[in-house]
Amino acid sequence: MHAWPASEVPALPGQGRDLRIHDTATGGRVTLAPGPVARIYVCGITPYDATHMGHAATYNAFDLVQRVWLDTKRQVHYVQNVTDVDDPLLERAVATGDDWTALAERETALFREDMTALRMLPPQHYIGAVEAIPGIVPLVERLRDSGAAYELEGDIYFSVESDPHFGGVSNLDAEAMRLLSAERGGDPERPGKKNPLDPMLWMAARDGEPSWDGGSLGQGRPGWHIECVAIALDHLGMGFDVQGGGSDLAFPHHEMGASHAQALTGEHPFAKAYVHAGMVALHGEKMSKSKGNLVFVSKVRRDGTDPAAIRLALLAHHYRADWEWTDQVLQDAVDRLARWRAAVSRPDGPSADALVEEVREALADDLDSPAALAAVDRWAERQQAEGGTDEGAPGLVSRTVDALLGVAL
User: What is the spatial distance between Cα 391 and Cα 409, in angstroms, rounded to a whole number?
Assistant: First the structure.
């Protein structure tokens, strides 16, 4: 599966700072100091309804992570999946009368278009669950053969008790985990499971649903969590720098994925930091496909909004915050974009050397994009009020905003 084209990232004078970021597993900030190649895995979409502003906010957060790393002169190895076979996708296909593969391809293509328009840096490896199945099957077989998984009526379940570190990502108690498991795709009430929290690794073929040859596992399809584990281990290995996604993935998805990988390898941790973006609401409720309260990037673009303004609307909120999309949020971003473009259109202006460092420091401090925007606002206000004589300043501001914030002026 191919990703989307990369926009050029301008080089800035000097060098960026190492990123200090909130780690869900420890509950505090950690300083990320990767080697020459920083490794990141971000969980991708289930392509039955893309791309809403909640998606966009999540991928914007991890685009910033990449930009901070690139500014430290590191390379970035970024991997993202597409869950192109799963219950929600199949259910939507039945409800709409679509072929499930055509639905997945159409929505994935739209996602690529939106990511390109928003100037999100693409992953080096963009992998669908279906194409990953040949690598998933042997992992499930290994877990079963080692005693870390078991069969129940043809399905294969992972035993959470096989990983002594289980629970260390989300740090939730058993009852909270049980409730979230039921809400987020698990089946804690199924009779016969060793532990209600045990997640499915391989679902035996069901009538009317797609299935694949699973070797000794029989016909079926993979569970949600093992999909990402197989892709991450194949392309990044254990102990990569950041596992990213929305805050609703901390449990069960990232918790279970970490345990799968740790049981497979005997190593800990799966990722050095677990980083989660907040949720975006509309009319007082979190945007979700099940509720249908979605604002789509493609719709806002079709209505004539510059994608740079959409990106500024996302950047105006701290990535870990839960916030609400409103018409005013978008209008504020449109106005900000106009002010910035007017400011950099002049032939000279106030020195921007300090601004570069302010933006760098803000983003290194747990991706504080609102502080970074405020720094650019102050420069634009000085430009408007006083002007300046530095002929290189407007260009440097443009390159800084482009390189570190992904906004083309």
Answer: 17
Closest CA to 314 of 37, 52, 30: 52
387 CB neighbour count, 10 Å cutoff: 14
pLDDT digits (tens, 9 = 90+) for 138-162: 999 999 999 999 999 999 999 999 9
Structure tokens at 223: 């569970």
Go through the domains of the chain in sequence order and give each one's CATH number.
20-286 (3.40.50.620), 297-405 (1.20.120.640)
Q: Give dist(CA 171, CA 27) in Å, integer.
A: 9
d(CA 282, CA 392): 42
- Residue 284: what pLDDT? 86
Specify the pTM: 0.96
Element (H, E) at 370: helix 369-385
Query: If DSSP codes are grouped into helix, strand and coil, which group holds residue 279?
Result: coil
Q: Which helix (H) or strand (E) holds 28?
A: strand 28-32
Tokens linked to 329: 């949020």
Flag whether pLDDT at 326 surpasses 80: yes
Q: How far is CA 295 from the centre of its chain?
A: 18
CB half-sphere exposure, 216, CA atoms < 13 A: 9
User: Residues for the chain: how many in total?
Assistant: 409
pLDDT band at 286 (very low <50, low <70, confident <90, very high): confident
Distances (CA, A) of 336 to 95, 111, 269, 310, 316: 41, 26, 42, 11, 10
280-282/271-277 β-pairing: unpaired
**Radius of gyration, CA atoms only, the chain:** 22
- For residues 72 and 328, what is the distance between their CA atoms, to the nearest angstrom? 35
237: left (phi over 0), alpha (psi -120 to 50) or beta: left
User: Residue 199 is encoded by which pair of tokens?
Assistant: 């997640």
**pLDDT averaged over every residue in the chain:** 96
Q: How far apart are CA 202 and CA 222, in angstroms?
A: 4
Residue 50: its pLDDT value, please?
81
Q: Is the pLDDT reported for residue 122 higher than 80? A: yes
CB 64 within 8 A of CB 368: no
Would you call 312 helix, strand, or coil by DSSP? helix
Say if residues 61 and 71 touch (Cβ distance below 8 Å).
no
